[in-house]
Amino acid sequence: MRYAVANAQNDPGDTDLGMAYGIVTSSGPCTLTATFASSLGHQMIVHDVSGLATTDPLDASSTMAYGDASDPFTSGTSTTSMDGDYIFGYEGGGSNLPMTAGSGFTLEATDIGSNAEDMIQPTAGPVSASFTPGSSFPFTAGMMGFKPEE
Predict the structure, then answer these.
(1) Average pLDDT over residues 40-47
(2) Comparing C-alpha atoms, which of 117, 75, 70 is closest to residue 97?
(3) What 3-state DSSP class applies to 71?
(4) N or C end of the chain, less CB within 10 A?
(5) What is the pTM of this model?
(6) So what's the pLDDT on residue 10?
(7) Where residue 48 sits, what CATH number does that domain have?
(8) Which residues lie below 8 Å from residue 90, measured CB to CB, with a gap of 6+?
(9) How far is CA 137 from the centre of its chain?
């Protein structure tokens, strides 16, 4: 498996966000291992997606940090270059708060303090992942857009 780091962010509430993606080039089981510098509050959300480009798949990415957000917050905006990009959005720091996915997104993963959402962007252009929290708390949010398989 090949992998690459797409983006990283640290917010004033001390919630770090790192995003990476991998390309599996063989069939069969795949093992992911993460090594962290400390033992405090780490999470890893993995999505298995097919139908994406296997060469240079990352089309766009962005991250934002919020010291205290109670209104909808976003990953920041990035611009995709291809119709049909798979958009993956993530937020961390929610401390078990209920979260609503952004317009057009489907909430795919919820865990203690983090959520993930995704969608297929029909037309290339500006995009951002967005979330609406159930109450105010420090958050980080990120988005990665992946080109479809040609």
Answers:
(1) 71
(2) 70
(3) coil
(4) C
(5) 0.84
(6) 54
(7) 2.60.120.380
(8) 17, 19, 45, 75, 114, 115, 116, 117, 129, 141, 142, 143
(9) 18
* pLDDT of 124 over the 90 cut: yes
Structure tokens at 90: 């993530």
Q: Span 126-138, mean pLDDT?
A: 84
The CA distance from 150 to 144, in Å, is 19
Angle, CA of 42, 54 and 28, to the nearest 5°? 70
Q: What is the DSSP string of 101-146?
A: EPTT-EEEEEETTEEEEEEEESS-SEE--EEEESS-EEEEEEEEEE
Contacting residues for 9 by C-beta, under 8 A, at least 6 apart: 16, 17, 63, 64, 65, 140, 142
Sign of the torsion angle spanned by Cα atoms 49, 51, 54, 56 = negative
Task: Report how many domains make up the chain.
Answer: 1
Q: Could you tell me if 115 and 91 are in contact, meaning their C-beta atoms sit under 8 angstroms apart?
A: yes
What CA–CA distance (Å, rounded) separates 121 from 94? Answer: 26
